[in-house]
Specification:
heterodimer, A: about 110 residues, mainly beta, 6-stranded mixed β-sheet, 5-stranded antiparallel β-sheet, 11 strands, about 0% helix, B: about 110 residues, 7-stranded mixed β-sheet, about 50% strand
Chain lengths: ~110, ~110
């Protein structure tokens, strides 16, 4: 079945890099996404990667995709206090007609 | 910033009441979605729509119903609210296309006493 898994918590020091990992099970995924959710708010799309790419960089964000291992990661360089949030990994599967499957989210906390 | 709105943002209501959660988007997106999310937990798709007069049930069974009479509007209705309906409800929309990026509203936090 379709499943997306993430670790629940990550704590990093301000200024360090954060790496949030995600694994998925469906090999027919077309796009993989990273969303950010701040307290009391909806989800904000940070970035996405097409399944035939292995890396995408956008300012402080780097997405790495290992399709063989079905592993996706999000690296945030120079982590700031404003990066504190829950980060959701998600995949879209062509066979599921545009539905997106979300992971359970990784809560990122920043320590001074 | 995404132009998708949800009202009310917070609602506390007694058991048995009928409620409608509003969702509107001004981006002309054809697809719209409702998710249910308990605090700190994953999202569960409860309803979606591919366009006017199209509605489908999602992966999580829900006692709520939806309608899509206009492209920009996708309200969710609970005929008789119960404490088990207490949750956050997130509305999203997307435009048909290669990436199907979903844009989310701010959510409605519903508490049923």
């Amino acid at each position: 079945g379709e499943d997306v898994e993430q670790s629940l918590f990550l704590s990093v020091r301000e200024g360090d890099s954060s790496v949030i990992n995600c694994t998925y099970t469906d090999s027919s995924s077309t796009y993989l996404y990273w969303y950010k959710q701040e307290p009391g708010a909806g989800l904000q799309l940070l970035t996405y990667i097409f399944s035939n790419m292995d890396m995408k960089q956008d300012q402080r964000l780097t997405v790495l995709l290992n399709k063989k291992d079905k592993h996706l990661s999000l690296r945030i360089a120079d982590t700031q206090t404003g990066d504190s949030a829950i980060y959701f990994c998600a995949e879209s599967i062509e066979s599921s007609a545009s539905k997106i499957i979300f992971g359970s989210g990784t809560r990122l906390s920043i320590r001074p | 910033e995404a132009d998708i709105y949800q009202t009310p943002r917070y609602l506390v209501i007694g058991t048995g009441k009928k409620i409608t959660l509003e969702c509107s988007q001004t981006m002309g997106h054809d697809k719209m979605y409702w998710y249910q999310q308990d605090p700190g937990m994953e999202l569960h798709l409860i309803h979606y729509s591919y366009g006017v007069n199209s509605t489908e049930k999602g992966d999580l069974s829900s006692e709520s119903t939806v309608s899509r009479i206009r492209t920009e509007h996708f309200p969710l209705t609970l005929e008789s609210a119960r404490p088990s309906h207490t949750s956050q409800y997130l509305c999203a929309s997307s435009k048909s296309g290669r990436a199907d990026e979903q844009f989310f509203g701010p959510g409605t936090r519903l508490t049923v006493l």
